[in-house]
Automatic annotation (TrEMBL):
InterPro entries tied to this protein: Isochorismatase-like_dom, Isochorismatase-like_sf, Isochorismatase_domain
Pfam families linked to this entry: Isochorismatase (PF00857)
Recorded superkingdom: Bacteria
Domain Isochorismatase-like: 10-153
Listed name of the protein: Isochorismatase family protein
C-alpha cells in the first residue's frame, strides 16, 4: 500500500549522534524534523528504533532526540547487519527512515532493508550529510532502488489518515 498507516509502520532513526551532527549540512532542520516524527510516533503508537554507529567513537544519539525505543549499536554501515535489526522491522510493517549520513549509513541501511523485502519510506527533510550533493545523490539512488521519498508532513498526515482522528489537533500542532 503506498499510503503509510501508523498501525503498520516503524520509525527508524539512524545515527543522529553527538560527534557527527556538528558537521552535517542542515543538521538543525534534520534534527527538528526527526523530533517531530518521534513525537508523532509517540502519540500514534508507532514503534521507534534507533541505531548508533560506533557509539564509543561518535557518542550516543543527540539529547534532542531522546525517546523510548530500542537502541542498536553497530559497527557496520548497513544496520541490517546488526544483530536484531530486522526483528525490529517486521515484513508486515513499513519502515520510515530518518538519519545521517544519507549517503553512508542511511543509504546502506535502506538498501539492506529493500534487499530484505521491507517497504521503506525515506524522510528527505529528516536526513542529512556533510555535503548536500552527497545527500541528493543518496536520495536519487534510494528512490531508484525502490524506496519512497517522503517529507515529515507527508508522514504525519498519512499516519493520521483523517482530520477526524482523535489525536489530530495535538499531532498537527507538532508541525505548525
Amino acid at each position: 500500500m503506498p499510503i503509510l498507516d501508523a498501525s503498520a509502520s516503524t520509525l527508524l532513526v539512524v545515527d543522529f549522534q553527538a560527534r557527527l551532527m556538528p558537521v552535517i549540512e542542515g543538521a538543525d532542520a534534520a534534527i527538528g524534523n526527526a523530533r517531530r516524527l518521534l513525537d508523532a510516533a509517540a502519540k500514534l503508537e508507532v514503534p521507534c528504533v534507533f541505531t548508533e554507529q560506533n557509539p564509543a567513537g561518535l557518542g550516543g544519539t543527540v539529547e534532542a532526540l531522546s525517546a523510548p525505543g530500542a537502541v542498536l549499536p553497530k559497527m557496520t554501515f548497513d544496520a541490517t547487519g546488526s544483530l536484531g535489526m530486522l526483528d525490529h522491522a517486521p515484513e508486515d510493517r513499513a519502515v520510515v527512515v530518518a538519519g545521517c549520513e544519507a549517503h553512508v549509513c542511511v543509504l546502506q541501511t535502506v538498501l539492506g532493508l529493500l534487499e530484505a523485502g521491507r517497504t521503506v519510506y525515506v524522510v528527505r527533510d529528516a536526513i542529512g550529510s556533510r555535503r548536500i550533493e552527497n545527500k541528493e545523490a543518496a536520495v536519487r539512488r534510494m528512490e531508484r532502488h525502490g524506496a519512497e521519498i517522503v517529507t515529515t508532513e507527508m508522514v504525519v498526515f498519512e499516519w493520521l489518515g483523517t482530520c477526524k482522528h482523535p489525536r489530530f489537533r495535538e499531532v498537527v500542532a507538532l508541525i505548525k
